[in-house]
Every structure is written in structure tokens, then in C-alpha cells.
Specification:
The chain is an all-alpha fold. It is built from 4 helices and no strands.
């Protein structure tokens, strides 16, 4: 399993890749959409970076709250 640091590095790299691709796009709308994708990658990267810097107990609590699918009946049936 990769660390949050590895995850952040992955998404920072994807953001840079998207910006490089956007530089070669002539169509303004397509370029804007590619830059939006790059911005979204940066948001994911920063989130992973913040988790890497957080104390482990904070990450564990956030993970428990973020993934209700681990117990579907509890959140589907309310």
C-alpha cells in the first residue's frame, strides 16, 4: 500500500502532465477543460499531502467517516 506522500506525488505529477498537455492544445475550450483537470489533480494532491502531514489518529478518524460503504446497511437504511 502506498503512503499518502506517494499519493500526493502521483497527483502532483498528473497535474504537471495535464498542464503540459494543455500548453499544446489550440482549442480554447479544450484547453480550459484540460487546465480544470490539472486544477482538480492539484486539489487531490494537496489533500493527500495534508493527510501525510496529519497525525495518524486524525487520518484514521477521517477515513472511518469518509467511507460508509464499508457497512452499506448502516448508511443505506439510515
Amino acid at each position: 500500500m502506498s503512503s499518502f506522500r506517494d499519493e500526493a506525488a502521483h497527483w502532483f505529477a498528473r497535474a504537471a502532465e495535464m498542464r503540459t498537455l494543455a500548453a499544446g492544445i489550440a482549442d480554447p475550450e479544450a484547453k480550459r477543460k484540460m487546465l480544470d483537470v490539472a486544477d482538480n489533480c492539484m486539489t487531490i494532491a494537496r489533500s493527500a499531502e495534508a493527510r501525510a502531514d496529519a497525525p495518524l489518529d486524525v487520518v484514521d478518524r477521517a477515513s472511518d467517516d469518509s467511507f460508509p460503504a464499508s457497512d452499506p446497511p448502516a448508511w443505506i437504511n439510515g
